[in-house]
Amino acid sequence: MTHPNEAQLRQAYADFGRGDLEAYWSHCGDDFAFNVPGHNRVAGSYRGHDRFFALIGTVMELTGGQFEEIVEDVLANAEHGVVLVLHRFPRAGRPKEYRSAHVYDIRDGKFIECWEQPRDQAVFDDAWA
Questions:
Q1: What is the pTM of this model?
Q2: Domain locations in the chain as residue ranges
């Protein structure tokens, strides 16, 4: 049986994939933070609605609106969730691709914080250089 937080993560990523950022955000706590590691153009901690939406705007700008996120698997329990993703997009006329894990803290059915965990940090940093 699927845990409710797994279903919620799948729905949130489906919302994001349709470009409905407000629907994605409806799953988040007011002070939600998305943390991106590395030494690249998108690295940083993005806390709150406006900062998170600014991050997504930067991602879309850098990829010419061609950012593709494919959910490969989702695991969740009452307090944590992990979404395994494949990201594809063009940068400077070259295709980029990497795999990552998005690791969530979940409290009372709301996403509280997420950490991007690239499988290969060097490939991730190169993609967003």
A1: 0.96
A2: 4-127
